[in-house]
Design a protein that fits this description.
With about 280 residues, the chain is of the alpha/beta class. The protein has helices spanning about 5-15, 30-55, 70-80, 95-100, 130-135, 140-160, 175-185, 195-200, 205-220, 235-245; strands at about 60-65, 85-90, 115-120, 160-170, 225-230. Helix 4 links the parallel strand 2 (about 85-90) and strand 3. Helix 2 (about 30-55) packs parallel to helix 10 and helix 6 (about 140-160) crosses helix 9. It is globular, with a radius of gyration of 23 Å.
């Protein structure tokens, strides 16, 4: 005879299977299906890259979200098949003592895209609205002043010809805990868990309030925020790339069909009898 689950257990299960927006969680993608869709999207990103160069477009993509939301993995998925000379990733370290005395936006301006570039921000000027505000690296007055000024700053970017896309990756409390915990014992990921991550982890609701204030002030008609449910990292990556491609108008750039030329004749060249130091073949 089956035992009935308690109401608390049923509610917990329902909550775990529901996103922040209230939509039921979808079945996870298989690795094969994910790789197939990602390969298709990578081909489109290459077309976009060629079009950006051909039309001298300027594209700026901002990724924000809590620690463990999946920003790094998403950026890697976007950039792994395109040229780093065209798709540039910017992840600035903590400001130097000199930079702390500058106008706040000053350190970000040199990294904005020129013609024929796509710049991806792994955190951006919105540090002031999030980590700096929550962790006390700026005053409340500075944070509020930033939120007042940034819409005009972004309007100037757009009026200069920059295509600006802003993504917020939304992860649940339980999923963030799972991901950060997994980093502790994984030698490949331990570097991702900084002392700052540990401090910020305990301030979930402070970050929630900071996010809400940020959306209220900076979710404008000219530079809206696009929110992504990132509890399923594979689906989130595919959804973001698909959305990105829909927001930057592109076509296949004109190009000549590639054909390999004939190789030169040896012309008397012979392989030398040289004692090369080969890497041991362990695999």
């Amino acid at each position: 005879m089956k035992r009935k689950r308690s109401k608390k257990a049923r509610d917990s299960k329902t909550s775990a299977a529901t996103s922040r927006a209230g939509a039921p969680a979808k079945e996870k993608l298989s690795g094969k299906e994910y790789e197939k869709e990602l390969a298709r999207l990578h081909a489109e990103l290459v077309k976009l890259q060629q079009w950006v160069v051909h039309k001298a477009l300027k594209v700026c993509i901002v990724f924000e979200g809590r620690d463990g939301a999946g920003k790094g993995g998403t950026i890697k998925a976007i950039t792994e098949r395109v040229s780093p000379r065209i798709f540039r990733v910017v992840a600035l370290p903590a400001p130097t003592e000199r930079e702390k005395t500058q106008m706040y936006a000053q350190r970000y301006l040199p990294y904005l895209p020129a013609a024929g570039e796509v710049v991806i921000w792994d955190r951006s000027w919105y540090n002031r609205a999030g980590v700096e505000r929550v962790m006390g690296f700026c005053s409340e007055e500075q944070a509020k002043r930033f939120l007042t000024l940034v819409p005009d700053f972004e309007r100037m970017m757009i009026e200069s010809g920059i295509i600006l896309l802003k993504y917020w990756l939304e992860v649940s409390m339980d999923e963030q805990t799972r991901r950060l915990t997994a980093r502790i014992d994984d030698g490949r990921k331990i570097w991702k868990l900084s002392p700052m991550d540990l401090k910020s982890y305990s301030r979930w609701y402070d970050y929630s309030q900071a996010r809400d204030d940020m959306f209220k002030a900076t979710d404008t008609s000219w530079a809206p925020w696009y929110v992504v449910n990132s509890n399923d990292k594979k689906r989130a990556r595919l959804n973001i790339i698909t959305h990105l491609l829909s927001k930057v108008p592109y076509k296949e750039a004109p190009h000549e069909k590639v054909k390999l030329p004939e190789r030169q004749k040896p012309g008397g060249y012979r392989e030398p009898d040289y004692p090369y130091k080969y890497v041991p073949e362990k695999f």
